[in-house]
């Protein structure tokens, strides 16, 4: 059966220029999941001297916590282009995370690694929190609370898609309030506002007094209003036919603009 033209093509079916465009798109989205590994590995099979693919594959490994492998890839990139500031910057990050990992090597119990990881995340020490929570996760890979905390650490480090995947893993076993609110937040970060709103509303239906879901929902609705307002501004500015036709929506928008400026 012939596949629809709109269906996504597998990396091995793409040409090198198409793979490079896809790799760039994933990087711009901050999407360091399995596709990033597959696409950049395919690029390197076709062009082993592609510095961008080496650095992106290294960043994928860095997000997964494979620091030694990330360092090897970055040094390979620097052998090809010693002036690559991306490779040098990522290498510095890798070394810093290796030092953090060494600094938590003495932590011997899950309880200590987990408690300290949560504490450091709340203090805003994202990289240290990640090192502690990754260690805790290695000790208890199936611990629900640890997965949720690890997702929160990734989100704090601006990796919302990694965070979303961790929350989805928890939710695959059934409803979990903290994971669902966390997933809504991660989706909001990636501007998937309708899906995020649905998740927070479900939490509030089950737990009407939950402050986290309520605050998340208010933020999502504010984002939606801001996007709608920006789109209306664009229409008023770029579409003469629209600005020449006064409407109730335009009048509301103008009243809100005056109110915001007051």
Characteristic terms for this protein:
0% strand, 262 residues, mainly alpha, single chain, Serine Threonine Protein Phosphatase 5, Tetratricopeptide repeat, disordered N terminus
Descriptive overview:
The structure is a single chain. With 262 residues, this protein is mostly helical. It has a domain at 10-103: Serine Threonine Protein Phosphatase 5, Tetratricopeptide repeat, CATH 1.25.40.10. It contains 14 helices and no strands. The chain has helices at residues 16-28, 34-46, 51-64, 67-80, 85-103, 110-122, 126-139, 144-156, 160-171, 177-189, 193-206, 211-238, 240-243, 248-261. Helix 10 runs parallel beside helix 12 (211-238). The protein is globular. 32% of the residues are buried.
Helix content: over 70%
Average pLDDT taken over every residue: 88
Q: Summarize the helix and strand pattern as letters.
A: HHHHHHHHHHHHHH
| Gross morphology | globular
CATH superfamily grouping of the domain at 10-103 = Tetratricopeptide repeat domain
Per the CATH scheme, the topology name of the domain at 10-103 is Serine Threonine Protein Phosphatase 5, Tetratricopeptide repeat
Short account of what is shown:
With 262 residues, the chain is mostly helical.
Write the layout of secondary structure elements.
Blueprint: H1 16-28, H2 34-46, H3 51-64, H4 67-80, H5 85-103, H6 110-122, H7 126-139, H8 144-156, H9 160-171, H10 177-189, H11 193-206, H12 211-238, H13 240-243, H14 248-261
Helix pairs in contact: 1-2, 2-3, 3-4, 3-5, 4-5, 6-7, 6-8, 7-8, 8-9, 8-10, 9-10, 10-11, 10-12, 11-12
